[in-house]
Design goal:
The chain is mainly β. It is about 0% helix and about 50% strand. The protein has no helices and eight strands.
């Protein structure tokens, strides 16, 4: 589900991925963008990873092709504290149209 985010001057939406039981090792949640034309981009996002059950958040740039070429461009694991943090990922290495894949893994 999408939820409204309101942090003082920040506003937007967030996607919540439960990591507590009954989630188990190997469970994944995947969010993928539409195809993005080749051009330099910066993917900017906020994340909140707090608690003993937190797994990992992985962001990949997936180039169109046969087969698609998936490149992990950012990853964070474990408890990062009880605060929202900003992530920025350069998507300037694209040599073909691509999409962004965000995977929350337990």
């Amino acid at each position: 589900p999408f939820h409204k985010l309101g942090l003082s001057i920040l506003a937007g939406f967030y996607l919540y991925i439960e990591s507590s039981p009954p989630r188990k090792q190997g469970d994944n949640a995947v969010l993928s963008s539409q195809i993005i034309p080749v051009a330099p981009y910066c993917f900017r996002f906020w994340y909140y990873m707090y608690g003993s059950n937190v797994g990992s958040l992985n962001i990949s740039q997936v180039m169109s092709g046969s087969p698609p070429n998936k490149n992990l461009v950012w990853s964070m694991s474990g408890d990062q504290g009880a605060q929202w943090k900003q992530g920025n990922v350069s998507m300037s290495n694209a040599y073909a149209d691509f999409y962004v894949s965000v995977i929350g893994a337990k």
